[in-house]
């Protein structure tokens, strides 16, 4: 469903993004990744090669429907001013950064299936997630900001542990409850957090 608040130019941009991604994914399912070329994707989507590269830097990214993660506008302010404990704020920050890399969460089942079938796509997916984690870690440790935690190794290690736990729970949720992610992502993640809390509590 289109968003009436979007400009015509933005709606056209989104439609073109989806056309290229759908063409790339559908061709890969039908022909395999090796036989799916950028020329074939462009022809199926009704765009030029130049337009293809305006949206995706590689065939693999087009198939996955992903792009390099960034820090969304307002995400840092939300993290710093956010309510709740450090873990909850870290989870929300991680989700915001991941959302910048994966514009279409409704396509999760197809993306997951393709990544499972093609190791090169799985590796590409992991690279984008790793890049998202790097962005979040740099914020948690305040590196490159007004202050640094280089002299506080315990603080850096705590930040790494916090990020690792958040990333693990997100991966667990996507594998354990893919339909829940589609229906209500926040509820699915909260359920996974409860599972981890119970498991850790019972293990200690």
Strand count, sense and barrel status of the largest sheet are: none
Please state the average pLDDT score: 87
Tally the beta strands.
0
N→C terminal distance? 48 Å
* Strand percentage: under 5%
Shape: globular
Total individual domains: 2
Integer-rounded radius of gyration: 19 Å
Helices and strands: which structural class? mainly alpha
Q: Which series of helices and strands comes N to C? A: HHHHHHHHHHH
Uncertain regions spanning at least 5 consecutive residues: 143-153
Put simply, the count of helices is: 11
Helix content: over 70%
Commentary on this structure:
InterPro entries: DNA-bd_HTH_TetR-type_CS, Homeodomain-like_sf, HTH-type_TetR-like_transc_reg, HTH_TetR. It comes from Pseudoclavibacter terrae. Keywords: DNA-binding, Transcription, Transcription regulation. With 204 residues, the protein is mainly alpha-helical. The protein folds into two domains: 55 residues, Homeodomain-like (Arc Repressor Mutant, subunit A), CATH 1.10.10; 129 residues, no CATH class. The chain has eleven helices and no strands. α1 crosses α2.
Please outline the helices and strands.
Blueprint: H1 8-31, H2 38-45, H3 49-55, H4 59-64, H5 75-81, H6 86-101, H7 108-117, H8 119-140, H9 153-176, H10 178-183, H11 185-203
Please give a handful of descriptors for the protein shown.
204 residues, mainly alpha, Arc Repressor Mutant, subunit A, 2 domains, transcription, HTH_TetR, DNA-bd_HTH_TetR-type_CS
């Amino acid at each position: 469903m289109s968003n009436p608040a979007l400009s015509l130019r933005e709606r056209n941009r989104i439609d073109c993004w989806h056309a290229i991604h759908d063409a790339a994914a559908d061709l890969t399912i039908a022909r395999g990744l090796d036989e799916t070329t950028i020329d074939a994707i462009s022809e199926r989507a009704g765009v030029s090669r130049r337009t293809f590269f305006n949206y995706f830097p590689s065939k693999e990214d087009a198939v996955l429907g992903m792009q390099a993660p960034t820090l969304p506008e307002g995400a840092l302010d939300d993290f710093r001013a956010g309510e709740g404990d450090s873990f909850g704020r870290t989870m929300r920050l991680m989700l915001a950064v991941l959302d910048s890399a994966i514009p279409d969460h409704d396509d999760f089942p197809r993306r997951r299936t393709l990544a499972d079938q093609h190791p090169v796509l799985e590796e590409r997916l992991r690279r984008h997630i790793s890049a998202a984690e790097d962005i979040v870690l740099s914020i948690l440790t305040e590196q490159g900001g007004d202050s640094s935690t280089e002299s506080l190794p315990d603080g850096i290690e705590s930040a790494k542990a916090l990020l690792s736990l958040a990333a693990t729970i997100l991966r667990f949720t996507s594998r354990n409850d893919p339909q829940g992610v589609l229906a209500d992502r926040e509820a699915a993640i909260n359920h996974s957090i409860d599972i981890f809390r119970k498991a850790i509590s019972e293990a200690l």
